[in-house]
Amino acid sequence: MARNIILTLHRNDLRLTDNALFHCAHEREQDDVTHVLPLFVFDERFIELSGLPGYEREGPEARTRLCKFWRTGAFRARFLTEGVFDMRNSLRQRGSELLIRYGLMEKVTADIVKAMRANGDKVKAVYLQEEFYSEEKAIERKLRKALKEVGVPLVIYDQVPLIHPSDLPFAPAAMPDVFTPFRKRIENLPHLGRAPHPIPPNFKPFPRPPDGADLYPGYGAQIEADHRGLDFVLQCLLRPLQDTFQLRAGSEGRNQRSAFPYAGGETAALQRVEWYFKQGGPPPVSRYKETRNGLLGHAYSTKLSPFLCLGMVSPRTIISALEEYEEKYGSQQNAYWVRFELLWRDYFLFAARKFGSKLFTLGGFEEVTDPKQAHVKMQPGWWKSWNQDEPLKDDVNSEQAAVRWMQGKTGVPFVDANMAELRESGFMSNRGRQNVASFLTKDCQIDWRLGAEFFESHLIDYEFGNWQYVSGVGNDARASRQFNPVKQGNDYDPHGDYIRTWLPQLSSLPNSRIQCPWTLPPTEFARLVPEGTYPCKPVIEQPGWKAHYVRKGPSKQGVPNRNERVRNPGRLIVGKSGRSIEPSGSDSDHSAESGSTDDGLQGAGATAAAKAVQKQFNHVSVQTVREGRQRETRVAGQALGEAKKNGTQGKGVTKENVLY
Ligand SMILES: Cc1cc2nc3c(=O)[nH]c(=O)nc-3n(C[C@H](O)[C@H](O)[C@H](O)COP(=O)(O)OP(=O)(O)OC[C@H]3O[C@@H](n4cnc5c(N)ncnc54)[C@H](O)[C@@H]3O)c2cc1C
Fold it and tell me: Which residues cross the membrane (predicted)?
């Protein structure tokens, strides 16, 4: 008898709990469906597959657009593969199976549909999770077309954000551009997110091919038939990444020092949810507000982002755990702040849908929201680029700030320790991310896309959005936000424990100088830091840092202000050159200290190139900066007014942090 099949095609939804694809495939209306075939395709556009024996790529290597880093580095490759095999185990425990294939998702799927047809089966539909980024949307369109050619409908389920798009209090295209109004409208909803779907109690059988036959054709059928497992696949995926400067560490396994020491998969994700929200009396979430700015250990924040990014847990499952916690312990600030952060995730997702391909352009969302300002920042000379002729190696003492940033050798320990953590573990705290991004884009003025691509390559939890925001081309109402890494280091790593963990070569430095080792007398530096292991001068030094070389006041460790105002005002104070200037005569200091004037646009040393740029957009820059400032002030005032009205001012919401 012909079998009636639904094919569930999984991308970033590697879970059984609260997965609309499984839920809907097993609903009562689907009684005529006899079998469900879950499929995962390692897609060569996102992850390099050339390490698979005999694999022939159809397109180019899986590298980032601009900088040509591997798109999926070793940490995410490992985490993803673990997640795929964990899902297969869970399906097997329920009598089902996960078909694992390699290639182009649309092609592999269409081939499988054809093979099932050839077996005399009927494929009723293919179910897929709707994604938010334009590249994935384009693949979805190709898949729809390929399936149309074989007469099979594609059914899409929107389940990535916490808030279902049809529950939004505004049309997705009309979402507020700035976070606070977005959040406030969402917070007025009667319920934050729908209830999660349970795992179907009885999984429909997997449509196995006729007796003895290989699983359906397509690359990887042989691997499956050979019963090769996780280790073999992982080895193949890691093989091409071995030679690169930036990805070696991840190939060697999980780093014991990592703040994210977890294996990939729904099993680990649910254990983490259980531990963070339910275990202990009270569980760790009851200290979230106090600890979330931490840097060391796994407990300071939820550590759910990698699981969320690959869909190993749904945000609705997290909210439901949070609600259980609140029922037991009462509604508190801690729970509020976890929700608040999850709304940031939704905000970036919906912004990605609204702004589409502007997610990847130099001018970012601002090209739409503030074209004049974006125009200024897209002029040649505004951003510095990375001269890729210089090979990326670990042992260079590069003149290029971009290279030093990637190496974790800028000479600014708080930045470098965070970069070391990223490179050696695939994770970085939120505090660290804000600082290294600000350092790259605001201090060193390097094209933000380099940072975004470097993160894409290294992070286990990579998602778009934050880089635009931090570098001032997204929707930050205070685009001038700039971090002072010396002050931040003093505040959040006052004893240098974090720096010593990731930069052991600085272990002997006294606490008083660990954030600014260049202030030591050269002989002291030479005595305390093993030769050649760390730069004796920072790649750039801002005048605003100097006030913090000698630490004053209490440390911020344990203080819940994640978004405090930073002293150093930002680049949107545009000088006559059309470039940012530092306040109170710091301009010349800045260019003199940084010693890096590849774009020749800084301060007193402005070159002919600078003058040309100045002439080109002097008028517009002054005007747009004024408008930008007015806009920022307006939004800040508005948000503060709202905070006062809601009584949230003084409860963690201040003029400084209300916008983030
Ligand atoms: C420059 C920069 C790059 C970043 N890149 C990423 C990224 O690639 N992927 C990613 O998931 N997060 C990113 N973030 C946001 C944030 O740093 C991480 O989500 C967070 O550090 C993950 O740790 P956690 O799960 O313990 O977070 P928690 O503090 O426990 O927060 C709970 C959840 O809220 C969400 N969340 C929190 N902050 C943000 C935010 N700013 N934007 C979006 N979602 C947020 C995450 O899903 C997170 O798991 C970035 C932030 C910056 C400043």
Answer: none
